[in-house]
Amino acid sequence: MKRLVILSGKGGTGKTTVAGALIGLSKAKAYADCDVDAPNLHLIISQKAEPKKTDFYGMQKAEISQDICTKCGLCKVKCRFDAIKNQNGKYFVDMFSCEGCGVCETFCPVNAIELHKNIAGELFLYHGNSVFSTAKLKMGSGTSGKLVTEVKKQLSQALNDEKLAIIDGSPGIGCPVIASLSGADAVLIVAEPSVSGISDMERIIHTAKHFGVKIAVCVNKYDTNEANTKRIEKFCKQNRLPFVGKIPYDINAQKAINQGKTIAEVDCSSGDAVKKIYNEIKKIIFEN
Amino acid sequence: MKIAVPVNDNNTKTEICPSFGRTPFYMIKDTVSNAFDFIVNEAAESIGGAGIKAAQLLLDKNVEIVLTPRCGENSAKVLADASVKLYRTQGNSAMENFDLYEKGKLEPLTNIHPGFHGHGG
Amino acid sequence: MAAKIAVLSGKGGTGKTLVSVNLALAANKAVYVDCDVEEPNGHLFFKPTTIKKEDIFVKIPSIDKNLCTGCKKCVEFCKFNALAYAKELIVFDEVCHSCGGCVMICPQKALNEKDKFIGTVKTGISENVKTITGELKTGEASGVPIIKNLLNKVKDEKELVFIDCPPGSACTVMESIADADFCLLVAEPTVFGSHNLEMVYELIKVFKKPCAVVLNKTTQEKNPSEEFCIKNGIIIFQKIPFDQELGELNSNGKIAVRENYSKKSLFYDLLDKVREAVK
């Protein structure tokens, strides 16, 4: 089975729009949304069945037992994350800042503090005609890399004989992106023809190269800045990266998305462009 | 001498797990008694640093040889510092690989992959 | 007027930087803080002259081998698995979360602390705007210490401060809005945008921050984000239409307000509303 990951570096370039279209065009029966901070893929690839839901446990969080606490304040002094607050004479843990390090629990002179399991997110697995794995991180949570890995693991465990799995990757360039990338056979980078978009595209390519995956690049909304689009094409040529196509800005894309459809399902210029991209990327994924 | 293999289940017919750090179990063979033991990998649930904790677990059990399909750089460092030797497994069967090792048919594992830096690789 | 305005959106690419950069310039004398430390983009528009660069460090343990007896209390303590003991103690710098617990717990006092570089904070000037940009070193786990440093620098600021926040609703976003007096939520006209607007609105409510919405890239089509605002009684301060001229300026790293963009009054009007809200 081949794994294609869609990345962009910068948010808002059209990763999910392109991923959704490719899933439709390839008729891939296995796909995942690794943007666990703000998952959106389910909005354009509707699922019939109810998903299987699994709690995701993050780092534990500390809790102070008010009836044992002597208000000595030692926990607040020792906490490096500013997670112990003192209000109205009461000491309590700020759940958003607590990193679960256990220092307060260990050093409380009266054992008033305990670390507890903390649900940091939720995994969803839709298993109907196809397998769709996604998750949502609870707000305020820290590094989501592990949850991304769980999304992929959940997908792998549910699969049988699929030829292709398409993964809508995390935005950014940090740990969740690396987690999205691991195990990929090919990466399609959706670039935005803007100064910020190019800057982030270069950073994501740098990260992807470390993984030895095949990298391909396409540009979305290319006609919003044709000069920058040319710059991206030139960059790809210089770095020997396949440039697999460009998608025009298309008001119909917005319409399609708002109707819960992928751009490949409606008759529009962006849909036509993504079909061409699919034909190109197919060759790259399945070539030896 | 103790030899460890990351495995999916705690029975002798088990298959090898592709992840060293997040395998559910380790199958450990004692070459003196020829007995097999299974330990739960407590590192599997870690948010980060699973490979490090898993390697430490094996060191605490006095494992001297590890047979695995892959290993990350953090676990590899811990194991290497303790002079534990790594060999690359062939195929899926755990049992078969203990055999292959004893017959000298396994190659040392040289391809160490970069760490996943806390995001649960 | 002293006030901190956080500009955020649940989704990336909606126009946080477009709005915060243009408002800062329109305000004439203001401070722009880039808290999107993983991918700071504001400086690409301001092209500021750097006045000061500060390296940001966190503490990680350093081992005094002479005192370490291999008791492994630190290894057992560490919730992040950043320590291991083979023939001697090993610290994994990139896994360490700098909690200091191992140093505190070592019975032999064999652990001290040393600095680990995690990123930079650059202070600069672009015309009348002071820019403060945080950048996290690639691969580092948490941008929170950098964001804390950034916000500490504007704690007693007397001018308007515009805080360009990271996308999403994770801990870095929370840290970025912690001291904000007002939050501007930027949303685009797709279900992606409204879905994520909903997410970030929840966050604002938890922190009880007063807020208003800026609808960006609006078209003649139905706008699910606008519908969300109307349904939830969230005030809309401005609608910035999708516009080729603005798009081209933005994609070339130009600040619309500075370049005499034909519809720059959109930003000045928005600024007036913001000023009114924080009075």
Walkthrough of the structure:
The complex is a heterotrimer of chains A (288), B (121) and C (279). Chain A is an alpha/beta fold and 288 residues long. Chain A has two domains: 2-57 and 121-286, 3-Layer(aba) Sandwich (Rossmann fold); 61-117, Alpha-Beta Plaits. In chain A, 34% of the residues lie in helices and 25% in strands. Chain A is built from nine helices and 13 strands. In chain A, a hairpin with a 2-residue loop joins β5 (84-87) and β6 (90-93). Chain A starts with a strand and ends with a helix. The relative contact order of chain A is 0.20. With 121 residues, chain B is of the alpha/beta class. Chain B has one domain: Dinitrogenase iron-molybdenum cofactor biosynthesis domain (Nucleotidyltransferase, domain 5, 2-Layer Sandwich). Chain B has a five-stranded mixed β-sheet with strand order 3-2-1-4-5, sandwiched between helices. In chain B, β2 and β3 (35-40) form a beta hairpin. In chain B, α1 runs parallel beside α2 (73-81). The longest helix of chain B is centred in the middle third of the chain and has 11 residues, at 50-60. Chain B is globular and about 35 Å long. Chain C has helices at residues 16-26, 42-46, 73-77, 101-105, 144-153, 171-177, 191-206, 224-232, 244-251, 265-278, and strands at 3-8, 30-34, 49-63, 83-85, 89-91, 111-126, 129-136, 160-164, 182-187, 211-218, 236-241. In chain C, the strands form two sheets. A nine-stranded mixed β-sheet of chain C has the order 3-6-7-2-8-1-9-10-11, sandwiched between helices. In chain C, strands 4-5 form a two-stranded antiparallel ribbon. Chain C is elongated. In chain C, α1 (16-26) crosses α10 (265-278). Chain C contains ten helices and eleven strands. The model of chain C has no long low-confidence stretch (mean pLDDT 95). Helices cover 32% and strands 29% of the residues of chain C. The N and C termini of chain C lie close together (8 Å).
